[in-house]
Amino acid sequence: MKKLFVLKTLCAFILLLFIGTFSTVQAQNPKQSKKKAKAQKKASKNLKLEPYTPIYHDRDSDGDGVMDSRDQCIHTPKGEPVTPFGCPYDVDFDGIYDYEDSCKNEAGPRENHGCPWKDKDQDGIMDNFDDCPDVPGLKRFRGCPDSDGDGIEDAQDKCPKEIGLPKYYGCPPPFIDSDGDGTSDYNDLCPQTPGPKENKGCPELKPEEKKALDAAFNNLLFETNSDVIVSSSYQSLDDLAKVMRNKPKYKLYLEGHTDNVGDDESNMDLSKRRALSTKKYLVQHGVLDPNISTDGFGETRPVADNSTDEGRHKNRRVEMQIIQ
Protein backbone atom coordinates (compact mmCIF):
# COMPACT_ATOMS: atom_id res chain seq x y z
CA MET A 1 0.00 0.00 0.00
CA LYS A 2 2.79 2.30 0.87
CA LYS A 3 4.56 1.44 -2.36
CA LEU A 4 1.42 2.27 -4.34
CA PHE A 5 1.16 5.73 -2.72
CA VAL A 6 4.80 6.49 -3.49
CA LEU A 7 4.30 5.47 -7.14
CA LYS A 8 1.22 7.75 -7.54
CA THR A 9 3.04 10.65 -5.93
CA LEU A 10 6.00 10.22 -8.29
CA CYS A 11 3.74 10.15 -11.35
CA ALA A 12 1.94 13.30 -10.25
CA PHE A 13 5.24 15.10 -9.76
CA ILE A 14 6.50 14.10 -13.19
CA LEU A 15 3.23 15.30 -14.75
CA LEU A 16 3.40 18.67 -12.99
CA LEU A 17 7.03 19.07 -14.04
CA PHE A 18 6.16 18.42 -17.72
CA ILE A 19 3.27 20.90 -17.70
CA GLY A 20 5.40 23.55 -16.06
CA THR A 21 8.20 23.11 -18.57
CA PHE A 22 5.83 23.31 -21.59
CA SER A 23 4.19 26.47 -20.23
CA THR A 24 7.60 28.05 -19.71
CA VAL A 25 8.65 27.31 -23.32
CA GLN A 26 5.36 28.68 -24.69
CA ALA A 27 5.70 31.80 -22.61
CA GLN A 28 9.25 32.44 -23.74
CA ASN A 29 8.35 32.83 -27.48
CA PRO A 30 6.27 36.09 -27.29
CA LYS A 31 8.64 37.48 -24.73
CA GLN A 32 11.65 36.90 -26.89
CA SER A 33 9.84 38.33 -29.94
CA LYS A 34 8.90 41.45 -28.02
CA LYS A 35 12.44 41.83 -26.79
CA LYS A 36 13.85 41.47 -30.29
CA ALA A 37 11.40 44.03 -31.74
CA LYS A 38 12.33 46.50 -29.03
CA ALA A 39 16.01 46.11 -29.87
CA GLN A 40 15.37 46.69 -33.58
CA LYS A 41 13.35 49.83 -32.85
CA LYS A 42 16.13 51.20 -30.70
CA ALA A 43 18.71 50.46 -33.37
CA SER A 44 16.64 52.27 -36.04
CA LYS A 45 16.46 55.40 -33.84
CA ASN A 46 20.18 55.49 -33.53
CA LEU A 47 20.61 55.28 -37.34
CA LYS A 48 20.80 58.81 -38.88
CA LEU A 49 20.28 59.25 -42.68
CA GLU A 50 21.62 62.31 -44.44
CA PRO A 51 18.99 64.03 -46.75
CA TYR A 52 19.61 63.67 -50.59
CA THR A 53 20.36 66.92 -52.31
CA PRO A 54 20.19 66.73 -56.16
CA ILE A 55 22.91 68.54 -58.06
CA TYR A 56 21.89 70.37 -61.27
CA HIS A 57 24.34 71.21 -64.01
CA ASP A 58 22.23 73.64 -66.19
CA ARG A 59 23.62 75.00 -69.43
CA ASP A 60 22.69 76.97 -72.58
CA SER A 61 23.26 74.55 -75.47
CA ASP A 62 22.35 76.91 -78.33
CA GLY A 63 23.82 80.07 -76.77
CA ASP A 64 20.63 82.09 -77.05
CA GLY A 65 20.70 83.32 -73.45
CA VAL A 66 17.97 80.93 -72.26
CA MET A 67 19.10 78.02 -70.09
CA ASP A 68 18.18 74.53 -71.28
CA SER A 69 15.98 73.91 -68.22
CA ARG A 70 13.41 76.41 -69.61
CA ASP A 71 14.43 76.55 -73.27
CA GLN A 72 11.66 75.00 -75.42
CA CYS A 73 13.81 75.19 -78.56
CA ILE A 74 17.35 74.20 -77.59
CA HIS A 75 18.60 73.98 -81.19
CA THR A 76 17.92 77.54 -82.37
CA PRO A 77 20.52 78.75 -84.90
CA LYS A 78 23.19 80.92 -83.34
CA GLY A 79 22.40 84.64 -83.32
CA GLU A 80 18.66 84.20 -84.02
CA PRO A 81 16.42 86.41 -81.77
CA VAL A 82 14.27 84.33 -79.44
CA THR A 83 11.30 84.66 -77.10
CA PRO A 84 11.70 84.32 -73.30
CA PHE A 85 11.04 80.60 -73.80
CA GLY A 86 14.00 80.24 -76.14
CA CYS A 87 12.10 79.79 -79.42
CA PRO A 88 12.59 81.94 -82.58
CA TYR A 89 9.87 84.42 -83.54
CA ASP A 90 6.93 83.54 -85.86
CA VAL A 91 5.38 86.91 -86.71
CA ASP A 92 2.58 85.58 -88.98
CA PHE A 93 1.73 82.62 -86.69
CA ASP A 94 1.85 80.07 -89.51
CA GLY A 95 3.96 77.61 -87.55
CA ILE A 96 7.13 78.44 -89.48
CA TYR A 97 9.86 80.40 -87.67
CA ASP A 98 10.82 83.70 -89.26
CA TYR A 99 14.37 82.61 -90.10
CA GLU A 100 12.98 79.86 -92.40
CA ASP A 101 9.86 81.74 -93.60
CA SER A 102 10.08 83.37 -97.06
CA CYS A 103 6.94 85.44 -96.30
CA LYS A 104 7.32 86.51 -92.67
CA ASN A 105 4.23 88.74 -92.67
CA GLU A 106 1.91 86.40 -94.62
CA ALA A 107 0.75 83.04 -93.32
CA GLY A 108 1.40 80.14 -95.68
CA PRO A 109 2.08 76.39 -95.74
CA ARG A 110 5.51 74.90 -95.17
CA GLU A 111 5.51 73.25 -98.61
CA ASN A 112 5.41 76.75 -100.13
CA HIS A 113 8.17 78.04 -97.80
CA GLY A 114 5.68 79.86 -95.57
CA CYS A 115 4.07 81.84 -98.40
CA PRO A 116 0.37 81.67 -99.37
CA TRP A 117 -0.53 79.93 -102.62
CA LYS A 118 -1.41 82.24 -105.51
CA ASP A 119 -3.16 81.93 -108.87
CA LYS A 120 -0.60 83.18 -111.40
CA ASP A 121 -2.68 82.49 -114.48
CA GLN A 122 -5.92 83.85 -112.96
CA ASP A 123 -7.96 80.81 -113.96
CA GLY A 124 -9.57 80.40 -110.54
CA ILE A 125 -7.38 77.41 -109.63
CA MET A 126 -4.72 77.94 -106.97
CA ASP A 127 -1.17 77.11 -108.06
CA ASN A 128 -0.86 74.17 -105.64
CA PHE A 129 -3.72 72.43 -107.47
CA ASP A 130 -2.82 73.74 -110.94
CA ASP A 131 -0.75 71.45 -113.19
CA CYS A 132 -0.40 74.36 -115.65
CA PRO A 133 0.06 77.37 -113.31
CA ASP A 134 1.27 79.69 -116.09
CA VAL A 135 -1.56 79.02 -118.56
CA PRO A 136 -5.30 79.50 -117.86
CA GLY A 137 -7.16 76.20 -117.89
CA LEU A 138 -10.07 74.17 -116.60
CA LYS A 139 -10.60 72.66 -113.18
CA ARG A 140 -11.43 69.21 -114.59
CA PHE A 141 -8.00 69.19 -116.26
CA ARG A 142 -6.28 70.44 -113.05
CA GLY A 143 -5.82 73.91 -114.50
CA CYS A 144 -4.59 72.86 -117.95
CA PRO A 145 -6.28 74.24 -121.10
CA ASP A 146 -8.51 72.74 -123.76
CA SER A 147 -8.01 75.38 -126.44
CA ASP A 148 -10.44 73.99 -129.01
CA GLY A 149 -13.13 73.02 -126.48
CA ASP A 150 -13.45 69.43 -127.69
CA GLY A 151 -13.19 67.95 -124.19
CA ILE A 152 -9.59 66.81 -124.66
CA GLU A 153 -6.90 68.74 -122.83
CA ASP A 154 -4.16 70.23 -124.99
CA ALA A 155 -1.46 67.96 -123.55
CA GLN A 156 -3.34 64.92 -124.91
CA ASP A 157 -4.72 66.62 -128.04
CA LYS A 158 -2.77 66.16 -131.30
CA CYS A 159 -4.90 68.93 -132.86
CA PRO A 160 -5.29 71.44 -129.99
CA LYS A 161 -6.61 74.16 -132.30
CA GLU A 162 -9.22 71.98 -134.05
CA ILE A 163 -12.30 70.35 -132.56
CA GLY A 164 -11.83 66.60 -132.77
CA LEU A 165 -12.75 63.22 -131.38
CA PRO A 166 -11.01 61.06 -128.75
CA LYS A 167 -10.61 58.17 -131.19
CA TYR A 168 -8.64 60.50 -133.48
CA TYR A 169 -6.57 61.83 -130.51
CA GLY A 170 -8.36 65.16 -130.57
CA CYS A 171 -8.23 65.62 -134.33
CA PRO A 172 -11.27 65.79 -136.62
CA PRO A 173 -12.17 62.70 -138.62
CA PRO A 174 -10.99 62.35 -142.23
CA PHE A 175 -12.44 65.09 -144.42
CA ILE A 176 -15.75 64.02 -145.94
CA ASP A 177 -18.04 66.58 -147.59
CA SER A 178 -21.20 64.81 -148.70
CA ASP A 179 -22.95 67.93 -150.07
CA GLY A 180 -19.80 69.48 -151.56
CA ASP A 181 -20.24 72.84 -149.85
CA GLY A 182 -16.68 73.00 -148.50
CA THR A 183 -17.70 72.19 -144.92
CA SER A 184 -16.75 68.79 -143.53
CA ASP A 185 -19.66 66.59 -142.55
CA TYR A 186 -18.22 66.58 -139.02
CA ASN A 187 -18.81 70.34 -138.73
CA ASP A 188 -21.81 70.55 -141.10
CA LEU A 189 -25.24 70.85 -139.47
CA CYS A 190 -26.76 70.21 -142.91
CA PRO A 191 -24.43 67.56 -144.39
CA GLN A 192 -26.87 66.68 -147.19
CA THR A 193 -27.74 70.26 -148.15
CA PRO A 194 -25.15 72.78 -149.43
CA GLY A 195 -24.70 75.95 -147.45
CA PRO A 196 -22.03 78.53 -146.55
CA LYS A 197 -19.46 77.77 -143.87
CA GLU A 198 -20.57 80.84 -141.88
CA ASN A 199 -24.00 79.20 -141.56
CA LYS A 200 -22.41 75.91 -140.42
CA GLY A 201 -22.99 74.31 -143.82
CA CYS A 202 -26.70 75.07 -143.96
CA PRO A 203 -28.54 77.11 -146.66
CA GLU A 204 -28.92 80.83 -146.15
CA LEU A 205 -32.08 81.90 -144.43
CA LYS A 206 -34.44 84.46 -145.78
CA PRO A 207 -33.72 87.96 -144.42
CA GLU A 208 -36.76 87.95 -142.13
CA GLU A 209 -35.87 84.49 -140.79
CA LYS A 210 -32.25 85.46 -140.13
CA LYS A 211 -33.42 88.67 -138.47
CA ALA A 212 -35.70 86.73 -136.09
CA LEU A 213 -32.90 84.29 -135.28
CA ASP A 214 -30.35 87.06 -134.62
CA ALA A 215 -32.80 89.00 -132.47
CA ALA A 216 -33.55 85.93 -130.34
CA PHE A 217 -29.81 85.26 -129.89
CA ASN A 218 -28.90 88.87 -129.05
CA ASN A 219 -31.76 89.41 -126.60
CA LEU A 220 -31.80 86.08 -124.79
CA LEU A 221 -30.96 86.72 -121.11
CA PHE A 222 -31.16 84.61 -117.99
CA GLU A 223 -31.29 85.42 -114.30
CA THR A 224 -27.85 85.23 -112.62
CA ASN A 225 -26.60 81.65 -112.15
CA SER A 226 -30.02 80.37 -113.24
CA ASP A 227 -31.80 78.85 -116.24
CA VAL A 228 -34.79 81.18 -115.77
CA ILE A 229 -35.30 83.36 -118.86
CA VAL A 230 -35.65 87.10 -118.20
CA SER A 231 -39.03 88.46 -119.35
CA SER A 232 -37.39 91.02 -121.67
CA SER A 233 -36.36 88.08 -123.89
CA TYR A 234 -39.92 86.84 -124.48
CA GLN A 235 -40.76 88.98 -127.53
CA SER A 236 -37.74 87.93 -129.60
CA LEU A 237 -38.31 84.26 -128.69
CA ASP A 238 -41.97 84.63 -129.73
CA ASP A 239 -40.84 85.90 -133.15
CA LEU A 240 -38.47 82.94 -133.52
CA ALA A 241 -41.26 80.52 -132.55
CA LYS A 242 -43.45 82.06 -135.28
CA VAL A 243 -40.76 81.37 -137.92
CA MET A 244 -40.47 77.75 -136.75
CA ARG A 245 -44.25 77.24 -136.77
CA ASN A 246 -44.48 78.55 -140.34
CA LYS A 247 -41.64 76.24 -141.43
CA PRO A 248 -42.44 72.87 -139.80
CA LYS A 249 -39.59 71.19 -141.74
CA TYR A 250 -37.01 73.51 -140.17
CA LYS A 251 -34.86 72.17 -137.36
CA LEU A 252 -33.44 74.33 -134.58
CA TYR A 253 -30.16 73.54 -132.85
CA LEU A 254 -29.44 75.21 -129.48
CA GLU A 255 -26.00 75.30 -127.79
CA GLY A 256 -25.59 76.56 -124.21
CA HIS A 257 -22.34 78.25 -123.07
CA THR A 258 -21.05 80.02 -119.93
CA ASP A 259 -18.07 82.10 -118.81
CA ASN A 260 -15.32 80.60 -116.63
CA VAL A 261 -16.56 81.97 -113.30
CA GLY A 262 -17.32 79.18 -110.84
CA ASP A 263 -16.91 75.42 -110.96
CA ASP A 264 -16.53 74.00 -114.48
CA GLU A 265 -18.85 71.04 -113.79
CA SER A 266 -21.53 73.40 -112.50
CA ASN A 267 -21.06 75.58 -115.57
CA MET A 268 -21.46 72.56 -117.84
CA ASP A 269 -24.73 71.69 -116.11
CA LEU A 270 -25.95 75.30 -116.26
CA SER A 271 -25.21 75.57 -120.00
CA LYS A 272 -27.29 72.46 -120.72
CA ARG A 273 -30.16 73.62 -118.51
CA ARG A 274 -30.26 77.00 -120.24
CA ALA A 275 -30.47 75.37 -123.67
CA LEU A 276 -33.26 73.11 -122.42
CA SER A 277 -35.06 76.07 -120.84
CA THR A 278 -35.01 77.88 -124.20
CA LYS A 279 -36.37 74.77 -125.94
CA LYS A 280 -39.14 74.43 -123.36
CA TYR A 281 -40.26 78.02 -123.96
CA LEU A 282 -40.38 77.54 -127.75
CA VAL A 283 -42.27 74.23 -127.46
CA GLN A 284 -44.80 75.93 -125.20
CA HIS A 285 -45.29 78.47 -128.02
CA GLY A 286 -46.07 75.97 -130.73
CA VAL A 287 -42.72 74.66 -132.01
CA LEU A 288 -42.62 70.88 -132.48
CA ASP A 289 -40.50 69.23 -129.78
CA PRO A 290 -38.65 66.83 -132.19
CA ASN A 291 -37.60 69.84 -134.28
CA ILE A 292 -35.38 71.24 -131.51
CA SER A 293 -32.13 69.63 -130.36
CA THR A 294 -29.94 70.96 -127.55
CA ASP A 295 -26.46 70.62 -126.12
CA GLY A 296 -24.28 72.40 -123.56
CA PHE A 297 -20.54 73.05 -123.46
CA GLY A 298 -20.12 75.04 -120.25
CA GLU A 299 -17.01 77.21 -120.33
CA THR A 300 -15.11 75.10 -122.88
CA ARG A 301 -15.90 77.19 -125.99
CA PRO A 302 -15.43 80.88 -125.18
CA VAL A 303 -15.83 83.45 -127.94
CA ALA A 304 -14.26 86.29 -125.95
CA ASP A 305 -11.69 86.96 -123.20
CA ASN A 306 -12.99 85.82 -119.80
CA SER A 307 -10.69 88.27 -118.00
CA THR A 308 -13.05 91.21 -118.79
CA ASP A 309 -16.70 91.83 -117.90
CA GLU A 310 -17.55 92.37 -121.55
CA GLY A 311 -15.87 89.12 -122.56
CA ARG A 312 -17.62 87.11 -119.86
CA HIS A 313 -20.95 88.61 -120.92
CA LYS A 314 -20.39 87.42 -124.52
CA ASN A 315 -19.49 83.94 -123.32
CA ARG A 316 -22.75 83.58 -121.35
CA ARG A 317 -24.89 82.69 -124.37
CA VAL A 318 -27.16 80.21 -126.13
CA GLU A 319 -26.22 79.89 -129.78
CA MET A 320 -29.04 79.16 -132.22
CA GLN A 321 -28.92 77.60 -135.69
CA ILE A 322 -31.87 76.92 -138.00
CA ILE A 323 -31.33 73.83 -140.11
CA GLN A 324 -33.38 73.51 -143.30
Describe it.
This protein has 324 residues and is mainly alpha-helical. The relative contact order is 0.07. The protein is built from five helices and three strands, in the order αααβαβαβ. Among the domains are: 63-116, no CATH class; 205-323, 60s Ribosomal Protein L30, Chain: A.
- Supply the number of helical segments: 5
Low-confidence stretches: 22-27
Mean pLDDT: 84
Helical fraction: 25-40%
Structural category: mainly alpha
Q: Topology as H/E string? A: HHHEHEHE
Q: What does this entry show, briefly?
A:
The protein has 324 residues and is mainly alpha-helical.
Short key terms for the protein model shown above:
mainly alpha; 31% helix; 324 residues; three-stranded mixed sheet; 5 helices; single chain; 60s Ribosomal Protein L30, Chain: A
List the helices and strands and how they pair.
Blueprint: H1 2-46, H2 207-219, H3 234-246, E1 251-257, H4 264-284, E2 292-296, H5 309-315, E3 317-323
Parallel strand pairs: 1-2
Antiparallel strand pairs: 1-3
